[in-house]
Write a structure and sequence with these properties.
The protein is of the alpha/beta class. It is 38% helix and 18% strand. Strand 1, helix 3 and strand 2 form a beta-alpha-beta unit. The longest helix has 18 residues. The chain is globular. The relative contact order is 0.13.
Length: 214
């Protein structure tokens, strides 16, 4: 799913057509969006022929952290899969001059694919600090009591594979699978024009399906 402030629009799902919306995003909004979708699924799943006892959540990268938080809070989620997930959201602020961000009110990051300067307003950081205890991924990981598969690329250039081990060490219920030679996107890229999936992505998908069928 796309969260409401991810910068895309209904008419343009691939590019960042709404930079103002992107700039107003924060972790709490993303959680609210996922919660909204989950509530819809819970209400409608039987109508659409689904099984209310088979609601599973998958999250990648930063979305993996959100998925951990949501899975711990919602007992209707029976299985969790995280792909190249972060173990903490602190990383997001490590390279930002917080004092300057506060003074300017906005910070920009350059997107090399779209060649856009992506804005992020200071309220993103304020929201994180105000809700820090509720956004603690490792704490939620330690409290999650259902089946969980962690998949991570050994050569992840964005989120170190050490994050997978941090999450694994928090919870005995987890299964950990490291994909050899895989990067952060498991060989994928955007736009993806090849007819066949990368081998790393095939391994990721097969492991995930195998886990969900258990």
């Amino acid at each position: 799913m796309n969260t409401s402030c991810n910068g895309t629009t209904a008419s343009n799902l691939l590019d960042f057509a709404d930079l103002e919306s992107f700039g107003q995003n924060n972790f709490s909004k993303e959680i609210e969006d996922v919660d909204c979708v989950l509530k819809f699924i819970e209400d409608k799943i039987e109508f659409y022929g689904g099984n209310p006892n088979e609601i599973y959540l998958i999250g990648h990268s930063r979305g993996g952290g959100i998925a951990v938080l949501m899975a711990q809070r919602n007992n209707k989620i029976k299985k969790l899969i995280t792909w190249a997930s972060v173990a903490s959201f602190d990383y997001f602020f490590n390279t930002i001059d917080i004092a300057k961000w506060k003074s300017d009110g906005v910070v920009y990051t350059y997107n090399s694919r779209t060649q856009q300067n992506m804005p992020l307003y200071y309220n993103f950081y304020e929201n994180y600090i105000e809700n820090y205890s509720n956004l603690n991924v490792l704490k939620s990981a330690s409290e999650f009591d259902k089946d969980w598969l962690i998949v991570h690329g050994k050569n992840d250039e964005s989120v170190s594979v050490s994050a997978a081990y941090e999450l694994k060490n928090q919870n005995a219920n987890t299964k950990l699978h490291i994909v050899k030679d895989a990067n952060h996107t498991f060989g994928g890229k955007h736009p993806y024009t090849e007819k066949e999936l990368p081998q790393e992505s095939i391994e990721l998908i097969n492991k995930s399906i195998e886990f969900l069928k258990l």
